[in-house]
Amino acid sequence: MDSSIFNHPGIFQKAFASAESIPFSDEVRKLCQGNMCGRYGMTWNCPPATGEPEELKKKALSFKNAFVFTHTGEVSGYNNLMELNRLRDETTDILSDLCEKLKENNIPFDALGCGSCNICKKCTYPHEPCRFPEKVFPPVEAYGINVVKLAEDLKLSYKNGKNTVTFFCIIFF
Ligand code: SF4
After folding, report:
1. Under a CB-based contact definition with an 8 Å cutoff, are residues 70 and 156 in contact?
2. Which residue minimizes the CA distance to atom 3 of ligand 1?
3. What does the alpha-carbon distance between residue 26 and residue 128 come to, in Å, rounded to a whole number?
4. To test ligand 1's pocket by mutation, which of 40, 44, 114, 122 has the most ligand atoms within 8 angstroms of CB?
5. Beta strand 164-172 with 13-18: parallel, antiparallel or unpaired?
6. So where are the chain's domains?
7. Model confidence over 92-135: pLDDT tens digits?
8. Contact 76, 145 (CB under 8 A)
9. pLDDT at position 47, please?
10. What is the Cβ-side half-sphere exposure of residue 119, based on CA atoms within 13 angstroms?
11. What would the pLDDT profile of 125-164 be if each residue is shown by its tens digit?
């Protein structure tokens, strides 16, 4: 496979790994249920709508390889939701571009993004189906993946300076 498929000017750091080396953790999914972000059960793109962690792990591990990338940027403050959402959306755009290239090359994959979904003003969850299923990517945390450990294992920077936010995405392929 041509690894240049995974090139993108918006990527800060990237790494390839075997799918089985990705650190899944029950604790991470429990943190999700703790609803610190306030999004648990609020969209089709967050647990529990994303599915049972064991099923998601099984799906991810049906692939041999994982591509991990980060996108980073500065915010004026960590409580500036507008700037955080802008950075998150930039990251999702990169992930979408990579997924398009994988589709064009007929490469099966499972793509995991960052954070909740805020495409619609009011999510249809749980009464109607998602309006844009092709645009949403379940967050890495919904799969119970420990991003701090992932960063350590793959030597990717988790912290990149004051007022800087770094988002992680994974494509299993
Ligand atoms: S695209 Fe809309 S309906 Fe689908 S998860 Fe996002 S907010 Fe909900």
Report:
1. yes
2. 130
3. 29
4. 44
5. unpaired
6. 3-172
7. 999 999 999 999 999 999 999 998 888 999 999 999 999 999 99
8. no
9. 92
10. 16
11. 999 999 999 999 999 999 999 999 999 999 999 999 889 9
